[in-house]
Automatic annotation (TrEMBL):
The lineage of its organism: Bacteria, Bacillati, Bacillota, Bacilli, Bacillales. Belongs to the BioY family. It is found in: Cell membrane. This is Biotin transporter. InterPro entries: BioY. It comes from the Bacteria. The keyword Transmembrane applies. The chain crosses the membrane at residues 7-26, 32-50, 57-74, 86-103, 115-135, 147-169. Keywords: Cell membrane, Membrane, Transmembrane, Transmembrane helix, Transport.
Length: 187
């Protein structure tokens, strides 16, 4: 892997870690808090593409797994990955990959609406599917009950999908990012 790609992977891992500085919002009816970190997952996939976006989130999950406290609220370690939030967190690498794959596939025809749609597909639908399913296995909730408890995240995640889409679309048009994307296409 080229040094530039390694730096970008590390940078987006750091961005998601920095978003963990914002405190989690605990809710009384679900053990999974609201955090800002899925915003970084969406940005990683939309800007870096499938391979590097997925790698950046894979590195993030690996760091969490070995105990680095980079999850919202200063959490880290295996308990964070096997606890109620684990399914959401473990789905981040694949979610970034999905977003990046869709963005890469439609890069010549990217508009605001499909950038937001790609963030919804990977950054909301896929993460919810993994998180809800995992939560139903590790808690006393049925899949339907876990899904109903996840409805509270939709407004905030929808806002994140739109803002990440706007930022990613603008960044993909700037000279350094556009040059990076062209180099990735050639490689």
């Amino acid at each position: 892997m080229k040094l530039k790609n390694m730096i970008l992977v590390a940078m987006f891992t750091s961005i998601v870690a920095a978003l963990g500085i914002l405190p989690p919002i605990a809710l009384p009816f679900t053990p999974v808090p609201i955090t800002a970190q899925t915003f970084g997952v969406m940005l990683a996939g939309a800007i870096l593409g499938a391979r590097l976006g997925g790698l950046s989130m894979g590195l993030f999950v690996l760091l969490v797994g070995i105990g680095v406290p980079i999850l919202s609220g200063g959490r880290g370690g295996l308990p964070s990955l096997i606890g109620p939030s684990g399914g959401y967190i473990l789905s981040w690498p694949i979610a970034a990959f999905i977003i990046g794959f869709l963005v890469d596939r439609y890069k010549e025809r990217l508009k605001m609406w499909n950038m937001v749609l790609f963030n919804y597909v990977g950054g909301i639908l896929f993460i919810y599917l993994g998180g809800i399913t995992y939560l139903s296995f590790v808690s006393a909730l049925s899949w339907q009950e876990a899904a109903i408890s996840a409805l509270v995240y939709i407004p905030g995640d929808s806002l994140k999908a739109v803002v990440a889409g706007v930022i990613a679309l603008q960044l993909r048009k700037t000279a350094p990012v556009a040059r990076f994307i062209k180099e990735q296409k050639a490689a």
